[in-house]
Structures are given as C-alpha cells and as structure tokens.
Kinase suppressor of Ras 2 isoform X3
Amino acid sequence: EEHTNSTKNEVTRELSLTGSGSTDSGGRADSLDKHSDARWPRQNSLSMKEWDIPYDDVKIFEVIGAGRFGTVCRGSWHGAVAVKLLHVLPLSDDGSLLDTFKHEVSIFRKTRHENLVLFMGACMKPPRLAIVTSLCKGMTLYTHIHLRKDKFTANKSVLVAQQISQGMGYLHARGIIHKDLKTKNIFLESGKVVITDFGLFSVTKLCFGNNARGDSLGIPSGWLCYLAPEIIRALRPHASLLLPFSKATDIYAFGTVWYELLCGEFPFKGQPPESIIWQVGKGVKQSLANMQASRDIKDILMVCWSYRAADRPDFPSLLNTLQKLPKKRLARSPSHPVHLSRSADS
Ligand code: ADP
Ligand code: MG
C-alpha cells in the first residue's frame, strides 16, 4: 500500500508541476508496479537505479538536431540509440530540475507500446542529464508533410491517425499526458507510427535558454497551432509550467496533426501569432471551406478542435470513428493494393 501511495504522490506532483487542474491522471497508472513489489525491494521512486546509464558508457556521435529540449545525437549503447542531452546550467539549481527530470523519466520508463518510442534509460548525474531511446528510422510526419511535401491520401492519413490514436490511447490509459503532440514528434518507419517525447514537457521547459529561440512571447515557432483554447488563454510570458495540459489538450493537438495530414499545411497558415492567439482564444477555428474531404473526415477535425474541452472525444472513441470511415474504392481493389509503407516512404 505504501508503494501505491508513493505513486499517487508522483501523480500529484505531476499535477502540481503542470498546474493542471485535471484529475485525469489518477488511478490506472498505479496498477503498473504493484506486482513487482513482492519480488524486488521497494525503491525510492526518484532513484530508479536500474534505469541509470553511466554517461561514459554511451558513445555519442553526430548531432541529429537541436530542439527546445537540448541536443539530440545519434549514439551507441548496445546498438544504435538516440541520446537527448539536456542543456542544464550547473550553477544554483536547488535540485528541482533534477527531481523534475527524474520524475518525467519515471513516467517515460513505464511505457511499452508498438507506437511509442522505446525508452532505454537515462543519465542522471548533473550536469550530464540525458535520455537514451531507440533511434527512430524513417522521417517525422513533419518532414514528410512540410519539407518533402509528400501527399497523404485519405486512406493513408486514416492509417496513420489510427496508429497515433492507439499509441495516445495507451498513454492516456496510463494517466500520461503527452503535452507536446506534434508532427515533429511522430516518426513514420515503413508505415509504422512511432511517437516520441511524451511527458517530457516540463523538463524541456525548465531548461535554460528555451525562450532564446522563440518570439517575444517565448513561443517557439510551429507550436501555437497545437494549443487548445484553454492553453492559449493561459499563456503568460515565462510561465509555461503553469499551462493547463490535459488529455483533452492532447486531443486538440491530434486535431491539428489530422489537419496537417489531410491538407499538407498548418492551420492558420501564414498568420502572425497574435492573430492565431486572438482567434483560437475566442473559439474561431481554421475554415474547412476549401478543404476537399468528406463530411466524416471534417467532423473529426471539428470535434477535436471543440472549444470546450469536455466536448472533445477521447482516443478510444476517435479510433472507433477512424475505423468506421468508409474506405476509398482503391483500397479494396486487388490490382491497386494500398501499401502505406511504400507510398509514405517514397
Ligand atoms: P523537435 O521535436 O522539436 O524537433 P527534439 O529536440 O525533440 O526537437 O528533436 C531534435 C531532432 O532530433 C529532430 O530532428 C528529431 O527528429 C530528432 N530526433 C528526436 N528523437 C529522435 C529519435 N528517437 N530517433 C531519431 N531522431 C530523433
Ligand atoms: Mg521531439
């Protein structure tokens, strides 16, 4: 019972860190570790030695990219891995950054799903904080859609969206809110969706220098159109930790991913942040008038983008809706088999 309590405390901590008033996270996440208690001595939930990777054991190769987070490198640790190195200031940290980091890692490590990136471990000795995950092959949806301008047919979009819903449904069932669902965090590996960076938002936001790359409001480019109205309305300079993330704000972000898949561009394309903030905050949505898609497909967008969080669906019901969408004839014709893997990668 003691253990259950400590897990509950983690959840409470999570809620207070994000400032989320949501009670979504309670309950189910607890069931995970119950059985392990009998066989292994109980660990302090913030120590997690079995997931520690000594920094020197990881070979670090070239930089793959730099996000808000820090730097992502290709590396080697029992095979090819991605290493996310956090930029931390060695000075004057009261330990809260390290605690947040450990807390978010403790959420991350509890995930096992086909459509989620594999967490392998973390380097926990400041100033060397890093997360080691499997290296995603393939490209992100962002690269496919916005850089390569690959076209996704409705059928392909549905297959991708179904897998996102499956991975996200799993996360939500475990009480984990992604907080940063976007096409840059979704890889497509031979037709298989792999979602990355779930639950790491607080630590990325606590890292030094985050606002350097954003605009005057500290808003990183390409972030705004994933934010639900209640988050937009809560935006304050330098207060990103207090944003009201919830399962429903993940659903809103999914709506934007769905729009990108179908339209090949971001909603509110070309509009300045001030204008997007004003519109979304008041409940104005991107118009779908010029969009070539069936009513059912547009309805998914509209319901995910509902102004009231309570009106948005959850991932299981979204998955159900996606599975019921009528397939285009092409998909049924044996002479024109639809291979998501081939068409998405080519
Ligand atoms: P963002 O998600 O905003 O692009 P990140 O810091 O998460 O920023 O990622 C930086 C870069 O590293 C991106 O190009 C991303 O595609 C790449 N990357 C992140 N995680 C992985 C991974 N597990 N495998 C391969 N590449 C990755
Ligand atoms: Mg990322």
